Amino acid sequence: MSEATVNLELPYILPSQAQKHVTHNEALQRLDALTQLTITASLATPPSDPQEGTCFHVTAPAAAAFAGKDGKLALRQDGDWIFITPREGWHGWFMAEDRMKIHDGSGWIIFDPIGTPPFFGVNTTADSTNRLAVAAGATLLTHEGSGHQIKVNKAAAGDTASLLFQTNWSGRAEMGLTGSDEFAVKVSANGSTWLSALSITGQGQVRMPQRPLVRATRGGGVLTPASGSQTGFSTLSVNQGGFTLGAAVAGGGSRLIVPVTGPYLICLGVEANPAGAFSVTVKVNGTTVIASINDNDAASASYGNCAIGMAILTAGNWLVLEHTGTTPLDFNYDKTELTVVML
């Protein structure tokens, strides 16, 4: 039979032993130190004025009263040192470091109850896709004295690094590097069909592929619209953002339909061979003037002119040209035409 327990090395009281209280008290001393183990500090030499009941981790190279006790626990008891050999799996609170450590059989290592878990959920369940999940009214990421960055890293240019905004788990907006290294802002009305509202190249150029803009012409060469008539358009040589042609106009061509409500820049270009006073006017819904060119001179040589205006247009509004006078106009591309751009 051994004379001490296996794990804590508490001495047994043997049947024929004299002064059994000594053995009993020694066991109590060890229990007092090892139960709720608290280690005051890690030292290679004893402190100058150790307090009774304090425990120290002896580090190498141990010296003075700790000489030859590297790695052991030194318990101060009754004015003397009791040395205890820690075992694998023991836990101790290191007061000087304010942390828990665990003995791995060769030394003390930091005990990290969290470690590097594959998933981590706060008030919700994480999974293999959403490895970090938080359910809360707000999530705060703040500085610790200066600035703060949120970093979203992707493996390759064709991958995605972005922030996705959802309604009831269905995507509605996304911003970041989505499938390329250009920064982009995308939106969706249903979570499946996405439109790029803005993209910025690595050189800083900004594109807005959904911005409504159009360059509209009627075509047909040189024509002389009747005074008081209205004409429309037949060709949208540049078209972005949803402009369309609507109902036919009596003087030729079709109405130009505005796709989105907002402020617009309007540019009217006219190529004329004046036979007398004339005007060309851009009208909204056939009535409201938003840009016009007026020439009250007598007949003159052929010339080009341009008028610029700005107006708030509503989705579904339609635009036409209204004419006065009987002046031949060139309706070909880059001659008499209308350019409209949402601001």
Brief descriptors of the model:
343 residues, mainly beta, Jelly Rolls, 3 domains, six-stranded antiparallel beta sheet
Set out the fold topology.
Layout (H helix, E strand, L loop, with lengths): L19 H15 L3 E2 L1 E3 L11 E4 L14 E5 L2 E5 L6 E4 L4 E5 L4 E3 L9 E3 L9 E3 L25 E8 L2 E9 L4 E6 L5 E7 L5 E2 L5 E5 L4 E2 L6 E2 L3 E6 L3 E5 L5 E4 L4 E11 L5 E7 L3 E8 L7 E11 L4 E7 L4 E2 L6 E6 L1
Please tally the helical runs, counting DSSP H or I stretches of 4 or more residues: 1
What string gives the helices and strands in order?
HEEEEEEEEEEEEEEEEEEEEEEEEEEEE
Q: What is the radius of gyration computed over CA atoms, rounded to a whole number of angstroms?
A: 43 Å
Mean pLDDT across all residues, rounded? 91
Number of strands: 28
Largest sheet: 6 strands, antiparallel
Question: Can you tell me the number of structural domains?
Answer: 3
User: Span between N and C termini?
Assistant: 94 Å
- Percent in helix: under 10%
Beta strand %:
35-45%
Which outline best applies? rod-shaped
